[in-house]
Every structure is written in structure tokens, then in C-alpha cells.
Protein 1
Amino acid sequence: MTVSARHGIRIFSLGYLTLILVAPVGLIFWRSFEHGWHPFWAAIANHDAVHALKLTLEITVIVVPLNTAFGILCALAIVRHRIPGMGLVNAIVDLPMALSPVVVGLSLYLLYARDGWFGSWLLGHGIQILFALPAMLLATAFVSLPFVVREVVPVLREIGIEQEEAAATLGSSAFTTFRRITLPAIRWAIAYGVVLTTARSLGEFGAVSIVSGGIAGRTQTLTQYVQASYENFSITGAYAASVELAVLAIATLLAMTMLRPRRGGHDGNRSA
Amino acid sequence: MKAAHGGWHHFWQVAWNPESKAALELTLGLAGAVVGVNTVTGTALAWTLVRDNFPGKRFVNMLIDLPFALPTIVAGLTLLALYGPTGGVGIDVAYTRWGVLMALLFVTLPFVVRTVQPVLIELDREMEEAAASLGANRLTIFRRVVFPHLLPALLSGVALAFARAVGEFGAVILISGNLPFKTEVASLYVFQRINSGDTTGASALAVLLLVISLGVLLAIGAVRRWATRHDR
């Protein structure tokens, strides 16, 4: 490859990255801090902003462990058991990744609305799902479902079953085999999946905004707070909350970068 | 899903109106443009990260994942901050189709890079050198030696980008301004129908989006099986 052609491709690709990604994200930080720290602190210390951050963290803390446990069980089922129609099962597990969050939100809305399949019975028994925390948890859990499964499946395939069979032959119970043999082999893949699940849960917007009602100070998450602030012309508030979310995203990126070399060489299987 | 409530005929009558049709056409058109742009920029970025060397390469490699980690509403707001009415760069794409396209390009940036990059890393450079020693020029080498190896990865990358672009909501809601027949994409139409209490109209387009997503996933599975047909 000639030097000029290489430089041409480099300038083209890095230029594109700068225009579409680096400059816009950088500008948000600059705008938030151009008049010093004070306006930023004032904006994020606002009652509704603090409540939104707490709600977002609360949802994440509940959803991530649930999806981690489900993800490990689901990956074991996919890899270690022969199920007919595997292609379809795989596609369904991947579905939340390709499906519009709006469709997810609408499905939950139809199920739990006053005249919905489950909603009428639940409301009759005084259980409110929609426009309350339960629906927001369901929406977030749905959209962040595939990540742990997708990370663990290729590693389980790679390690094979010889060691597990050997342990079973030596008389170890299924649970001991899992804890002593399988779990250590997949722990970095789980960690990577957990990081991705966390990022998705913190940033979820579409599905949650359909089922939450987005009442400020009650059912408004941090991403919804960004939207509401922008639409109420409170630009400083929108930028400040965005910076909060961006800082969480950057922390996620750093965790991903540190975990990637340890989770084994299957980069690309994650999205492929 | 309750989409078929009241029979198919009634369903289509309520669902298939000029506005929903325009939204779906716009969505598919934009997703097509996303595929086209990402094919070129994604391959170029993957190539730069694998075959080129420059200071800060590891940092750039990390940046590629930022759209996966950054909440979509923030992605849309950052674009609006720079390329909106108060951006100060002389470009204003707020409430235009260009703005929606930029938002979709932002959120789909990692897909092609992250599927093509590992294939490019493992590609044996001796094949290219052999082709060069046999007198093939650079374009021929890329077209006949490199590209066929990248094709399956590239196809799954653009398929994921397509599915994401068809369903994207958070990144476009602020920048599009939600103008029917102009910038209203399918997800925004569904959202706006729900907010007006018309769940039947919302469900109709939602079902189509669901079918598209499932179709894309099955296509990716088929590509993967086709690409690994010699390994099994």
C-alpha cells in the first residue's frame, strides 16, 4: 500500500469519526463547563434531576443481576442441550437487540393497560404495573436481555464439555461442577456481558418512555429527564444530565477495554 | 399482540394511511442510506485500525464502542448541539432528514467496524503478497482477495446496522422534530399514535417493524451458516 493511499484512508475514516462522534460529544462537555463548574452542579443538584438519577440507578441495580442469572442459564441451555429449531431460538434471544424499543414499550403497554390481557385482572386486584416501577423494570429487562447470553455462548462452545464430564465421572454434583469448572471458565465473559447490560439499562429510553408516563420527580429516568429538559427549553439541565450519562458511558467503555483481552479471542461474535 | 383485534380488514384500514406509509418509506430509505454509508466508512475504519499505525490508535479503537455505551437520547442531543440552530458551525440540520440520517449514522457506527475488524486481523497477508507478486494491482487485490473474505462479516454488520436504523427512537426524537411526511420515521409514528390513544394504529406499524427485525436476524443467521459452511 502506498503511503499516500494509506494516509488518504486514515484521514477519511478518522475525519468521519470526528465529525459524527467526537466533535458532538466533546461539544456537550464544553457547553456544560464553559462557565465553570457552578452552573453544572446547580443543574444536576435540582430535585427532579437527582430523583431521575436515583431511579435510573435503582432500575439498573435490580435488572442487571436478574439478567445475569437468566443469561447464564439461557446460554447453558443453548450450548449444552440440543433443541430442535435452534436457529429460531437464537433469533428470539437476539430479538431485543434488533427490535425497536418502541415496539417493546407498546407490547408491554398493550398487556398491562386497563383493558389489556393482564392489566384488567391486575388492576382489579389493586396492582399497578403501567406508569410505575414494575413496567419500567420489565421494559429495561427486556431490552438488555441478550448481552450476557451473547457473551457467554461462544466461550461455552469453546471450552467444550470434557472437563465437565471428567468432574461428573469423579462424582461431583451438577452444581459443584458448575461452580468449580464451568463458572471459572466463563467468568470474564459474564463480566463483559454485565458491563454491556449495565450500559444498556442506564441508557434505556424508548421502551421506558412509553410505559413510565415520565412524571417528573416520580417516574422519570435520567434519559427522560434529558428529553423533558430539552423540550422545556432548559438546555443547561439537558446538557448537564447528558454529561452525567456520558460519564457513566465512558466508565463503561474503560471497563470494556480492560475486560476485552481477558474474555478470550472471540471479538465480533458479540454482534455477529 | 393485540394488533389483529377486530379482524384483519379493519386493522389494515385503520393502520394503512398515507402518514404511516410515508413514515415506513422514509424509515426504509434512511436505513438503506445507513447501510451504504456504513459499508464504506465501517470498512475504512476497520482497515485503519488493523493495517495502519498512528499515535492514539488504541484510544480511537476504544472510541468506536462509544455509541454502544452512550444513551441514545444523549447521542441525539450532542448532534443537535453541534449541527443544530445554535451550533455555531454554519450547519443546521435540526428537523430535517439530514439530521435524522446523522443520528442514525451515529448509533450504527460500531456495527460494521466491529464485525469486519476481527476478520481483517486474521486475514493472511501472504495471500495478498502472492497476488501482488503475480502482478495484481491494489484494486484487484482488494476486490478479488480481501473483499470476498470480508463479505460475510460485512453483510452481518450492515444487517445489524439496518435493523438498528429501522427501529431507532431515542437518537432521532429530538433532532427530527417529528414532522409528519417529512421527518417522522416509523418508531416516532408508533410513539405518536400511542400518545394519541390509537393503539391499533400503533400496533399495525409495530407489527411490521417486528417482522423486519425477525427477518434481519434470520438473514444474519443464514449468512453466518453460509460463511462457515466449510468449517463444519
Note: Residues 59 and 212 of chain A are 12 Å apart (CA to CA).
Protein 2
Amino acid sequence: MKMNYLHGNDIKRKRFFTPFVFLLLLLIILLLFLLPIKPFFLSSLGSLGYPIWKAKASLSEKLFLGALIKTRISLVAENQSLREDLLAAELKAKENEILKEELKILQPFFKETSSEFYSLVLAKPPQTPYDTLIIDIGQSNFKGGERVFFESVLLGEITEILGRTAKVRLYSSGGVETKASIGRIGISVTAVGKGGGNFESRVHDEAEIEKGDFVIAADMVGKFLGQVEGVEENPTSAFKLIFFRFPLSISDLRWVTVEKSTLGQ
Amino acid sequence: MNIENKIFVRIVIDVLLLISIFILPWWFTVIAAAISIFFFKFFLESVVVALIVDVLYAPSSFVAGFYLITLGMVFIFIFFQIIRKKLIFY
């Protein structure tokens, strides 16, 4: 009778080594992306994704695929949201008047010349994690750091160039700190990104912040981050928390403006 | 399913996952890649897919963490490789 025996040592060795092989492979992959060749990978991925993103953007614009699957409930919700947007727009118009006056006073102090560049949004949340946008920059020679906005809402800045596309980190990205001020009372605050277009900020307890106050970008005239939507007071603390968000839906963005600022030139 | 068919299906899944990174929401791609680990032996592509999602979309000066999706996928991958042989139905 023929007998087969398992090679126990081989199996044990295999069991012992397998996790280490995985870890080694993963470390190699991670190192590949961390080494200076990362820009090459990024550029290749950008080039690979560019035609796909472009096709998707043009298709969704032409076909309005989203409109076909809208339910009555979503239409009611959209109606509500549009009413809120209208209210926000009215407030924005008033704020714009104030800002225009402010701009007239401040403009002589800045020797800023800037050119604006309109850019198609190729990928946006919820497709992208971490509150980032991928935008089409074509052959423009951006270097990173250029600020991106939509109308008068300051959204974020370019962090990386991926071939003909660029990665934009939104200021609402988790943990990102942005200098801002509360428009009505002029208090300087640090807006901390909370993801999903939301921000949180800490102000001293005596500041009279009201719902609807504009949070203005500190170093960009005429641009703002959002409107205060909630104030959380704590009787045991000397500070209170304010919550605000972008006054637009990031997932509805189709175009953004990139500012090529040449300060002091 | 014979071995040639399995390899063919695996390649098709790889290509679909790669395309989905650029078209579909990131969570769909990540969940699909995680599920694929259960169906294919040593599906290291899932980690590569997660890494591409992170490299492509995470800001370079990301402060809230370091490649969270990749790390999550690594844990799922290693966890399943360890328990895979202990599962009766596998």
C-alpha cells in the first residue's frame, strides 16, 4: 500500500515566511511611490487618466445622465436646496457690493497683476477621496501653489501637476488650515478643513458671531470661504466653535478658475 | 473554471478596476478590489489599486494621515491571506 506523508517542516516554513513575503512586496511598492520617481508615476497616471476623465466629463455634460434617474423626492430636495442657494446668492450680492467698495480702497496698495485661467473639472468628490479635484490645465505652465476658485468662492490650491492635469487640494480637506477672517466683525480666524466642504474654526467667547456671517479669505481680496452655519458655545470654555461650509456643492462643479498670480512683478 | 479562464477573468477584473479608478467613486473601486481578494488567490492587485487611488487623489502635503486607503487594503489583504486556509468553504 502506497502512503503519502506531508512535509510538516516545509508547511511550517511556508506559513512563517508568507506574511513576510507580503510585507516585503508591499514595502517595495510603497518605496517605488515614495522615491523621486513618484513624479514619473504621477505623470504616467495623469496621462493614462486624461482621455478617460475628458471623455467622462464631456459625456456627462452632453447626456445629463444624472437627470434621467432623478426621483420626485430628489426634485423636492433640489427645489429646497435651490431656494437656499437663491437666498445665499442674494446675501452674496449684498456682500459683493461691500467687497467692491473695499476693493476700491485697497487696490492702490497692491501691485498685483493676475491672469485667470478657466479649467474643466475632470474628477471631483465623491469620485475622489480627501477632498481633491483633478482639473484640466492643458499645456499651461503651472508649477503648483496657484489658487483655485469658483466665482468668488476660494476653493483650494494646486498641489501637484500630473501631465496635462493638476491636482487641487481643497481648503476643506481634512486638517488643512487656512487663514481667514469673519467679514462683519473683522476677527481673524484659522479655518480648519473637516472634509466634504466643511470647516471648523475657534473664536474667543466674546466674539459676536451670527449664523450667515461671511468667512473671508485673509490674503485674497473679494474671495470668501463660506458662511457661518452653526455656533457651538461651551460655558466652561473661553472659546466657541463655529462651523461653516462652501456655499456651493463641490460635486456640481464643472468649471473652476485658476489664478496665475504674479505678486510684485 | 479552468486555469486559463481564471487568468482571463482576473485580467479583465484588473483592467475594469483600473478604469474604475478614473470613472467611478473611489469607494466603489476600493470595495470591488477588496471583494476580489476573496475570489482570487494572492490578489495583490487590490493593494496596487488602492495605492494608485491614494497617489492619484491624495494631496502631496496631506496632513490627516498617510495613504489611509492603501493601509486599509494592506490590512484586509494580509488578514485574508492569514485566515484563507482556515476557512472551510474556501
Note: The domain at 110-169+250-263 of chain A is CATH 2.40.10.340 (Thrombin, subunit H).
